[in-house]
């Protein structure tokens, strides 16, 4: 039985970071100031795009045999060693990128009372507000969020789809259809990189669950004291991130216990492996812990798509990836139960995956 959802603390005007920034541009309220061990080290320059794994989607779908093989190897390395990569030549029209950024930014720039017509209800992560907040003394992220369930239709809450800005809903639907196609294809190639049948994930997932979340990070006078988004891994199978043009560099990933800043390649999409793929691959491909930091002068917009199996699916490591040298690391569980567990706990690195981990002592 799925755990009963907790009720997040209602975040009002006083905790809306855009309103705080307007009212007190040089002040950071105590509720946002992190303990000294959690504060970010702000690197003077981001990593070079060349340091980040890059997968050329064109070579996967239309490349010759040699190019295809090279990209499959690159994809496997990215998933195994990094847990994320950037996709270029993904075939999504750049005009759609511009349109989704325009409506997302347009929504965040609406008056507060207009945005509050779409509140994030207790026990959910859909709507406008701060997600993953469960106590009055919990530190808040320097971020405003707006999240929507997209597919399948039954997870949508039509009351939360805004009428402003114009064409918001049509744009989100058009963008989500294209990202869904990309995720389907990437999972096919990820399966092939593991030596599995290419349709194994598509057949297993059923009607995949898809959600979109828009994050807006206003400038912060003391970016060294706050986090834009707390460290976490994603509960999805794949996560697709588009960063708004002109945004500050904010994404950081934990690589070899060092927070590495990621500068997205223009017009590329940043993909990260979620907990679901880590479980299915028995830890061969790992979900990556990541966070967002803020900037003193520049804002940041990101548009994130989460792609996951049907809530009805029973999940566990695939038999092909379990043997005496790589014993089973995760128990079988219902994906809907894990999703409920994920959204009813605060973001704490990869702690939510403890839900599925088998204690190594149990293996002895």
From TrEMBL:
One of the Pfam families matching this protein, by short name: 2OG-FeII_Oxy
Family: Belongs to the iron/ascorbate-dependent oxidoreductase family.
Native source organism of the sequence: Morella rubra (Chinese bayberry)
GO MF, one example: metal ion binding
Protein name in the entry: Protein SRG1
SUPFAM superfamilies according to UniProt: Clavaminate synthase-like (SSF51197)
Gene3D superfamilies: B-lactam Antibiotic, Isopenicillin N Synthase, Chain
Record domain Fe2OG dioxygenase: where: 207-309
Alphabetical keyword list: Iron, Metal-binding, Oxidoreductase, Vitamin C
């Amino acid at each position: 039985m799925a755990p009963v959802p907790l009720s997040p603390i209602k975040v009002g005007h006083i905790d809306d970071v855009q309103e705080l920034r307007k009212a007190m541009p040089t002040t950071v309220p105590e509720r946002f100031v992190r303990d000294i061990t959690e504060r970010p080290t702000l690197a003077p320059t981001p990593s070079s795009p060349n340091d980040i794994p890059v997968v050329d989607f064109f070579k996967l779908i239309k490349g010759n045999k040699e190019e295809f093989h090279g990209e499959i190897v690159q994809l496997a390395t990215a998933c195994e060693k990094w847990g994320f990569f950037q996709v270029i030549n993904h075939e999504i029209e750049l005009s759609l990128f511009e349109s989704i950024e325009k409506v997302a930014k347009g929504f965040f720039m609406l008056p507060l009372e207009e945005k509050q017509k779409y509140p994030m209800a207790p026990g959910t992560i859909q709507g406008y507000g701060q997600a993953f907040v469960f106590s009055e003394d919990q530190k808040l992220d320097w971020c405003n969020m707006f999240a929507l369930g997209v597919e399948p239709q039954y997870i949508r809450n039509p009351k939360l789809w805004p009428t402003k800005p114009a064409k918001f809903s049509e744009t989100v639907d058009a963008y989500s259809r294209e990202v869904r196609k990309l995720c389907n294809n990437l999972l096919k190639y990820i399966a092939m990189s593991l030596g599995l049948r290419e349709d194994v994930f598509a057949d297993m997932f059923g009607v995949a669950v898809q959600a979109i979340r828009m994050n807006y990070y206003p400038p912060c006078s003391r970016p060294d004291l706050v986090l834009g988004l707390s460290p976490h891994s994603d509960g999805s199978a794949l996560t697709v991130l588009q960063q708004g043009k002109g945004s500050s560099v904010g994404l950081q990933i934990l690589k070899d216990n060092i927070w590495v800043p990621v500068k997205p390649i223009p017009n590329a999409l940043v993909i990260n492996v979620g907990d679901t793929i880590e479980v299915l691959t028995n830890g061969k491909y790992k979900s990556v812990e990541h966070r967002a930091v803020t900037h003193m002068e520049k804002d940041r917009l990101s548009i994130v798509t989460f792609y996951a199996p049907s809530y009805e699916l029973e999940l566990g490591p695939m038999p092909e990836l379990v043997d005496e040298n790589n014993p089973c690391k995760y128990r079988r569980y219902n994906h809907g139960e894990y999703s409920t567990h994920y959204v009813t706990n605060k973001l704490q690195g990869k702690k939510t995956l403890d839900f599925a981990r088998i204690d190594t002592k149990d293996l002895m």
